[in-house]
Structure formats: C-alpha cells, structure tokens
Design goal:
Layout lengths: L5 H7 L5 H7 L7 E3 L5 E3 L1 H6 L7 E7 L9 H14 L4 E5 L4 H5 L7 E2 L2 E4 L1 H5 L5 H21 L15 E3 L9 E3 L10 E3 L1 E3 L4 H8 L3 H9 L2 E4 L5 E3 L6 H8 L6 E5 L4 E4 L14 H10 L2 E5 L4 H16 L5 E6 L1 H7 L12 H19 L5 E6 L6 H13 L3 E5 L1 H4 L5 H13 L14 H11 L5 E3 L2 H15 L4 E4 L19 E10 L4 E6 L18 E2 L5 E2 L3
Parallel strand pairs: 3-15, 3-16, 4-14, 4-15, 7-10, 16-17, 17-18, 19-21, 20-22
Antiparallel strand pairs: 1-2, 2-13, 5-6, 6-13, 8-9, 11-12, 13-14, 21-22, 23-24
Length: 558
C-alpha cells in the first residue's frame, strides 16, 4: 500500500472536541480555555486545586545520539502513551512545543509521525496558542527597556559594554548572531554590540518551563541578570522594573496546552527549550499537572540521553522535586548501522556486522541512564527495511548489558504496535525499583560539575577552559551561585563536541568556549565547541517546499 504522509494521516484523523479529552482526565469544561475546537489551555485555578492529589508514575523517553537516519523519539513517546491507554492504563503524554526555526529549516515538524502523532499537527508546528510569541515579546520587552534606560540618563549606571541580555527571534537567522544596535544618531541611543539567539534558547523560555506558577515566574524573571556596572556589580531585571510587565505578557503562556493524539488520548504540549543549547524538557507545570491527573505520564527530553536525559535528571528533576520511575531509550536499526559506518544510501541493505559495531553508542546511553539509579528499557523503533537478524542483534546486545529491548511498530500500527513495550514499562514503573539521584551534589564547585558530566556522561579525558572562564565561575560561586546545576550546550550528534565523531568515542576533550549565568532559570549555561545559540538555515531549507495547495491546505510540513 502507498504510505500516507504524516500530514495526510493527521488531516484524516477523527478529532474529538477538546472538552471530551479534558473529561478523560477529570478537567471540567469550565477549567478549559479553548483555542478553537481542538486545543485548550488548562486554568491556573484548576491546576492549583490538584496540589494535594498523589502523583502518577513518570516515564521518560530519551534516545541515542540522533543521526540523519532518524530515531523517532517523539513518535515513540506518543506511541507508548497510546499503548498504555490501550492496555487500560490512564495515561497522559507531555511533550514540547515546536520552534518555527527548525520547522522551516531541517526538521519540518515535531508532533510525532505515522500513526503515532499529536494533533492538530499543523497548528502545533506553526503558531499553536501563541506561547512562543509571548516568550519572544516578553524577552524583547526587557531588551527594549535596557536600551531605553541607558538612553534616558542611565540612573542604574549600566556599562553598555557589559549588557549580557541578547535579543531573540523564533527563526533560524545566522545574520543576527552578532549585530550593532542604535546606529543612526543621538536620537537612536548609544551604539553597542549585540546579538540574537533563537527564542528556544531564551532564559525566559527556561524560566517559564521551570516555574511552578505566576508568582514563581515573576520572581524568577526579576532574578535575571541583564548587565553589569563598571565595578562588575550585577543589574537585575527587577532593577529595571520589567518583571511585572513581562509576567503580564506570559500570563496565558504559563498555562499548559491540552491537545490529543490520533487515538484521542490526552497530550500536554507546553514549552520548548532546545536540548543542545538549553535544558530540553517540556514545562514543569505541565508535567506536574499531568502527574496529578493521570496514573502514568510519558514525557520526553530532547536529542540523545547525553543531553536531554542528563538535563532532565540534573536540572528539571532536581529543581521540581521529580523522579522518573522508568526510562525508555529509543534506537533504530538504521541508526545503529550508521553508527557502524554505513552510508545513508546503503541503510536499506542488511548488515548485521554494522549493527553490532554501531551498538556501542546505545550501550553507553544505557550505562549513563542507569548511573542515575533508574531502570532503562530500549524501544527499537521499527522501519520496514529492518531485517529479523538485525533486530535480533540489537536485542542480544542490549540483553548482554542486563537490559531488554522491545520492537515497536507504532509508526505503522499506532497503539497496537507498542502494547508489549507499554506492558513492560508499566510493570517496571509499578515495581518501585527506581532509586533516582542526580549525578552531582548541589554543593560541588561549578567547574567540578562540568567535569563530572564531561567525564562520566561524555567519557571525555578532560575539560579545556581558559583562566578567564575558570575565574568567571569562581566569581559566580562567590556571588552565591555555586549551588546551581550546569546546562551543557554542545552538539547533539556525538558524545564529544565534534559532531562527526559517532559511536562511543573516548580520549576526547571538551573545550568550553563561554559560560553564561541564567540566574532566573537557576543554571549556568556552558557553551562547548562550535555550538551556536542561533542556528542557521540549511542549504535547502524545508521552507522551500512548505506552501498552500490549490485546496488551501498546507503542504510540506512533515
């Protein structure tokens, strides 16, 4: 049979009114703020009323390092959530919102795929409920207020050479990475160097995703360090009196969005920090709300487990007091072959030797996840070119490490293709064997935290950081920020900082290029290697094929 595209499958789905989806979780229609017929925000009052309820089981879906062959982490998250519901477990899914930049760049969409999707797919990949626009506006309001304060006499004595708050836009635009502002004469202010990051790298995004409620949000926004004086004392967002107005802009964005899967199961889609340059998890408020309303919550963390899962454990769980009951690591036979040295055009041919060689990447992720005291299962996301011998090779390898791998066919079959995985995951989550603890203690010095991740997760020999960076970390410790976790910004394609180094490299170094203090979000961003906080578009961006067809339908999102 001819395969339908993701967008064709999503468009043909039978959607239920969002009030029916809310009812599955006990959310009355009066507590839903509808955006059309198939999306709604859940009211802050309702969320606050759930505080005394017990929590369900938390299941994290992560993956091996991504390859151009594709892993299908979101697809597996959705498939597992549907599978758990299909075997009678009351389950909600929590994923991140899509950023416009990657949708029009490399990715084309981020709502799952095949028969394991969250819908409405088109709206989710485009403007959705406006959360990212609100975050962009709040961030840039603060930028405008900084330059405005300097223009009107600079009572706070901001050193314009030491403004650390950059601007943001939700698009991949390399031309904006480094810019000069306020050109054109005295009426436009004082010229200075500045730059843009992508919205998903904004500290405001991280703050929204880590805040418990509006009060917490406003306090964290106030804690943002925007600039320094000549004597290097910090200037905070609250010094500029911007925190109140920013909170007003984020009032609706703070409320989680409820949508549905193709099988009409509830899904919270809220927040969207990148995992390579930010902390890569959906919002704490969505996850905590889901845990109060469902018996099982399936959530994901971005990219491979060396980034998303590490930050989920060391940042999100630490900050929010969460603990996962089980972790599912997504792998594909195709990606194993690619890690084993097979070229992309040859992935359709059986090659068990290459599968065995490529499994080292998967093996390291399993070891890393287990180092947090959490049980790890492997989901083999099935492609129709996979052979029985190749699948058997992955299963055998995983079993040799004391874990198990389960073949999943959710892309083709929806929940029917994940019921074995769902049964096993629920058994493990219910068994109480998880004994979660973060990788490092709060009181460990900042540079030691960086070294711990580099050596234990990436298996690097050393961290390379010049004196200026080490001194900066010491200054932050002296200023009372030494207890913060670190958020590593590095390539997603490798355990190392060299994106071409596949498999399970050892003997490499982690060069730290820059460190940034996110005092409001509550972590230190450590920029490693060549990673960019403002991506660029590829040579042939997805935007070239995204269009409206003659029927007025969107084409090219996938």
């Amino acid at each position: 049979m001819a395969h339908l595209t993701d967008i064709e499958i999503a468009r043909a789905a039978t959607k239920k009114p969002i009030q029916e989806i809310g009812a599955k979780l006990g959310i009355g229609s009066e507590h839903l703020l509808p955006y059309g017929h198939d999306k709604a925000k859940v009211s802050a009052e309702f969320i606050a009323d759930q505080a005394s309820k017990p929590d369900g089981k938390l299941i994290l879906v992560t993956a091996i390092n991504p390859t151009p062959a594709g892993e299908g982490k979101t697809t597996t998250t959705v498939g597992l959530g549907d599978g758990l519901n299909a075997i009678g477990k009351k389950t909600a899914i929590c994923i991140r919102e899509a950023s416009l930049g990657p949708c029009f760049g490399m990715k084309g969409g981020a709502a799952g795929g095949g028969y394991a999707q969250v819908i409405p797919m088109e709206e989710m990949n485009l403007h959705f409920t406006g959360d990212f626009h609100a975050i962009t506006s709040a961030h840039n309001l603060l930028s405008a207020m900084i330059d405005n304060h300097i223009y009107w006499g600079n009572a706070l004595e901001i050193d314009s050479r030491r403004v650390v708050w950059r601007r943001v836009v939700d698009m991949n635009d390399r031309a904006l990475r480094q810019i000069t502002t306020s050109l054109g004469g005295a009426t436009n202010g004082f010229p200075r160097e500045a730059g843009f990051d992508i919205t998903v790298a904004s500290e405001v995004m991280a703050i929204l995703c880590l805040s418990n409620d509006l009060e917490d949000l406003e306090k964290r926004l106030g804690d943002i360090i925007v600039a320094y004086r000549r004597d290097l004392t910090p200037i905070y967002c609250r010094d500029l009196k911007a925190d109140g107005a920013m909170t007003v802009l984020l009032k609706d964005a703070m409320q989680p969005n409820l949508v549905q899967t193709l099988e009409n199961n509830p899904a919270f889609v809220h927040g969207g920090p990148f995992a390579n340059i930010a902390h890569g998890c959906n919002s704490v408020v969505a996850t905590k709300t889901a845990l109060k309303l469902a018996d099982y919550v399936v959530t994901e963390a971005g990219f491979g487990a060396d980034l998303g899962a590490e930050k989920f454990m060391n940042i999100k769980c630490r900050k929010a007091g969460l603990a996962p009951d089980a972790v599912v690591i997504v792998a594909t036979v195709r990606a194993m072959k690619m890690n084993g040295g097979v070229a992309r055009e040859d992935l359709g041919e059986e090659n068990v030797d290459a599968v065995n060689q490529g499994c080292a990447n998967l093996g390291r992720h399993i070891e890393n996840v287990k180092s947090f005291g959490v049980p790890a299962l492997v989901a083999i996301n099935h492609f129709f070119t996979d052979t029985d011998a190749e699948v058997a090779a992955v299963k055998q390898y995983v079993e040799s490490l004391g874990s198990e791998a389960i073949l999943c066919k959710h892309w083709a079959d929806g929940s029917a293709g994940t019921q074995e995985l769902a049964t096993r995951v629920s058994e493990i989550a219910d068994s109480g064997v998880s004994n979660f603890s973060p990788l490092y203690a709060d009181e460990l010095p900042l540079f030691d935290k960086i070294e711990t991740i580099a050596k234990q997760i990436y298996r690097a020999d050393e961290v390379l950081a010049d004196k200026k960076i080490r001194d900066q970390l010491k200054q932050w410790e002296e200023a009372g920020y030494g207890h913060l976790p670190v958020c590593m910004a590095k390539t997603q394609y490798s355990f190392s900082t060299d994106q071409n180094l596949r498999g399970a490299p050892t003997g490499h170094s982690v060069p730290v290029r820059e460190v940034r203090l996110s005092a409001g979000a509550g972590f230190i961003v450590v920029v490693c290697g060549e990673i960019m906080t403002m991506p660029g578009l590829p040579r042939q961006p997805s935007a070239e094929v995204i269009k409206l067809n003659d029927a007025g339908d969107i084409e090219g999102l996938f």
